[in-house]
Amino acid sequence: MSENGLASRRGKVLTTDTMNPSVKKVEYAVRGPIVQRAVEIENELKKGAKKPFSEVIKANIGDAHAMGQQPVTFFRQVLALCSYPELLNSPLFPEDVKSRAGRILQSCGGGSIGETLQFCVRQDVAQYIKQRDGGIPCNPDNIYLSTGASDAIVTILKLLVCGEGRTCTGAMIPIPQYPLYSAALAELGAVQINYYLDEENCWSLNIGELRRALVDARKHCNPRVLCIINPGNPTGQVQSRKCIEDVIRFAAEENLFLMADEVYQDNVYADGCHFHSFKKVLFEMGPQYSNTVELASFHSTSKCYMGECGFRGGYMEVVNMDSDVKAQLTKLVSVRLCPPVPGQALMDLVVNPPKPGEPSHATFMKERTATLRSLAERAKLTEQILNTVPGIHCNPVQGAMYSFPQITIPERAVQEAKEKGQAPDMFYCMKLLDETGICVVPGSGFGQKEGTYHFRMTILPPTDKLKILLQKVKEFHMGFTEQFS
Amino acid sequence: MSENGLASRRGKVLTTDTMNPSVKKVEYAVRGPIVQRAVEIENELKKGAKKPFSEVIKANIGDAHAMGQQPVTFFRQVLALCSYPELLNSPLFPEDVKSRAGRILQSCGGGSIGETLQFCVRQDVAQYIKQRDGGIPCNPDNIYLSTGASDAIVTILKLLVCGEGRTCTGAMIPIPQYPLYSAALAELGAVQINYYLDEENCWSLNIGELRRALVDARKHCNPRVLCIINPGNPTGQVQSRKCIEDVIRFAAEENLFLMADEVYQDNVYADGCHFHSFKKVLFEMGPQYSNTVELASFHSTSKCYMGECGFRGGYMEVVNMDSDVKAQLTKLVSVRLCPPVPGQALMDLVVNPPKPGEPSHATFMKERTATLRSLAERAKLTEQILNTVPGIHCNPVQGAMYSFPQITIPERAVQEAKEKGQAPDMFYCMKLLDETGICVVPGSGFGQKEGTYHFRMTILPPTDKLKILLQKVKEFHMGFTEQFS
Fold first, then answer.
1. A19/B116 touch (CB, cutoff 8 Å), yes or no
2. Contact with chain B for residue A183, Cβ under 8 A
3. Which domains does chain B have, with CATH numbers?
4. Which of A122, B120, B130, B431 has its CA 20 to 30 A from that of B253?
C-alpha cells in the first residue's frame, strides 16, 4: 500500500453522519433503553448486587413462552418428527402426529424440511380463512407466507411507498400504535399520519377522527393506506362489527388501501366482544365493497394461544390486489428466498389443528382452552387491580396481551424528567424498573395524546406472579406520587 | 356510503403505475420466468402430458436437500429435542445430543425455543471464528444473528445507502454476481457498480479491473462499499490469499467498506485451493489494516455440508464498525424481532459440532466428509463433461455449488431470440427446459460481458442423475447448434 493510500484513509467509511438517514429516524421503544437497563440490572444481580428485588420481570414484550406458557403439545410433536423423521417409527407419538408430519415432509420436494413447502401451507391457510369467515371463499393464490407478521406488513408498506413531498405516500396508523409501523414508515421514507384512538371510549376507533386526520394529511402528502390493529396493540380494544363496517366504507370513499393486523384474533376476553375479520365484514357488505376495496390482512404463529414467537411463522391474505402488483409482490418476496420452513410448518398446524375424533384432539383443546381462559383471567385481574390505584386509570383489556393504563405524573416529576432530557413516562418507567425490577414500556414509545402518560404492560406473567407484580406497581405509584407531590 | 363516495373510487389504489418504483426495478432471475415455466411443465406432466422426459430437474437453485442430500443426523436430533423436550428422557438419543438440546433450551428464558436465545449463539459463533482463523480474537459483540445471509447482506447495504445523484452511495459488485446484490441495490436506490471477473483466468478478481470500475463510477456516484463473494456464486472460483490481500489493500487505499459473502466457506474442492477468510487475512496484514478497514462478513446454515436452506439461520461479523453505527444496527434489527429460533439453534450447532470423543462425533464426521467428497466429485464431473461439448467452455468449479459455463449461441438463434424479445441465453435455457426438462438459469440473470452467453447449473443432483443430465445438456447443445447453424 502506498503512503498516499494510507493518508487517504481519513476516517471510517460508515459513521452516523454518513449512514442512511432514514435508518437513524427509526425508533423502537419495545426493545429500547428501558430494556438495555433491564439487562444491566440482571447482570448486576448475577454479580451479587443487593437490590430490593431478586429478579427482573420482563412485562415489556409479548413473548408468552418467555413468561412460562407451555407450547402446544401437538405442534411440537409434529415439528420434532419433521426435524428428525426417524421418529416416525417411534411408538412415542400418536398416529395423527405421525400422519401430519408425513404430510408436511411429503410436501417438501426432497422430504426434508430444509427447504420450502409453501404450496400445501397456502392451501391450508385458505381453507382456515374460509371456515373462520363462515364459508366466504379464499383463494390460495391470495396467500403469501411470511417471516412473522412484521415481515408481511413491511412488505405491503414497501409496495405502497412512492412520490416525494406533497405526493409522498402517507399511511394512517392508530395512536397509540405498535411501533413496527412507525419504524417501517421512517425507514421507507413515507409519511406517518396519526389518528388517535378514543381513550374515553375504551380506545375505540372514531370515524370522525379518521376523517380529521385524513383531511389534515392531504395538505402535505398523499394518504393511500389505512392501518388497523384489531384486537389492539398496545391498547387491547376489540373492534365492533359496526366500527369495522364504518372503516371499510371510509376506505372505499377515500380510496385507501386497507391493512388489517389481526395477529391477536383468538385473544378476545371481554363479554360481548367478538373478533370479526376485515375480510368477512368486507364480503358481507356486498359486491360494491367486496369487489373493490383493496385489503391485506395479517396473521402469525406468535400470539393467540400458540405464543410461538421464535418460529417466525406468518401469512397475509391480499384481496382485490391488482394482478400485476401481485406479480411484483411475488418477485419481491422471492429475492428473500422462503420464510423459515419450521415456521411454515407450524403455521400449517395452527390453521389445521387436530380434528374431533383424532387422537390429539382432546389434549389440544384442553391446552388451547386453558391458555385462553387463563389469559382472560389475567386481563380482568390487571384491569381491576390497576384501577384500585389513585392516579392510574386502565381501560378494560378486551383482547390482545397488554394493558395500557394512563398514569398521572406529578408536575414536579415532569420537571425533573425534563431536566434529565427524558420523556416523563420514561422517567417513571426507569424508576419503576430500578425500584421493583418490573420492566414495562413507556407510552411515549407507542404515541399518546400530548400531555397524557401511559405505560404498556403485558398480561403474560403467571397469575400468582402477576398479582404480586400489580401490587408492586400499586405501591410504586403511590410512593412516586407522594415523592413528587 | 354516499353516491359521491362511490364515484370517487375511480380505480385501484395500488397499481404498477402507482407502486414503489424501486421495487419495480428489482430483478431476480434465479426464480424468474424460467422457474415459472418449469412449474407449468410439472403441472402438465402431472396431468399426463406427453413429453420427451418424465420429470423436471431443478438445477437452478442451490437447495441441496431438494436434490436428495440427507440432513446431518446430529443437527436434526438436537432440533427434534428442542422442539419437543419430552424426548430428553427417551433412550433413542445419544447423551451429547441430549446435553446440547438441554443447553440450548436453558439459554431460552422460559425453556422453550419459542423465543430468542441469541446470546449463547453469538458466543459460540465468536469461538468458531476464532478457531477457524487460527486464534485471531473475535468479540461476540461484533456478531449479529440473521435470517439467512441474505437478510444480513441487505441490512448492511441499507445502512450504507445515502445521498442522491452524484453523492448517491455506489456499491461495487462482481459480474457475474448472485442477484440478491443487484436486487437489494435496486430496492434501496443505490448505484450498482460492476466489476468484471476474469473468465479467461478462472473467474479471478483483477485489481486493475476493480480500479477501472471505481474510477468510472466516481464520475457519477459515491462508491463506498466493495462486495466480494468467495467462494464465488455463480462462478465457483476460490480466491487466493494474495488476491484477498490485494483487495483489502485496495479497500484501505480507496476508503471502501468491505462486504465478504463467505457462505460457501466449506465448499472448496479444487487441488491447491483453500478458503481464506477476509477477517483472518485482514488481521494477518497488521494493525494498519486490522485497526482501520471496515469489514462485514457473512455465513449461513444453507450451504456447505449442511444445506439447511429452510431454517434461515445466519450470522454476520462486523469489524472496525463505528460504535454509534453498531447501536443503530442493533436498533434496526430489533424492529424485526429475532431471527427464527430453530435457525439460531442450528447455527449454534454448525459452529459448535460434536467434538472428538463425544458419542455423535464419528457419525457427524462421516456424514460431513461424505457430502463434501461427493460434491467435489460432482464439481469435477461437471467441468469434465461440459468441456467435451463443442461450443461450451466451463471453468473449473473450484468451490461453491455451481458451474457457469460459457455457451456459443449461433447468430441465427440470437436473431430469433431478439425477435421474441428474449435474451439469447434465456431463449437457449427455455428451449433446454422444454426439450429436456432441465431447469438452469440464463447467465443474463447474473450479468456477463456483453456478447457472451452462459448459464448457471448447480452441481447438486446425485452423481448418477448428474451424469445423465450432463449428457442431455451435451446432446441438446449439439442439436441446438446444428438447428441454428
1. no
2. yes
3. 21-68+364-483 (3.90.1150.10), 103-351 (3.40.640.10)
4. B130
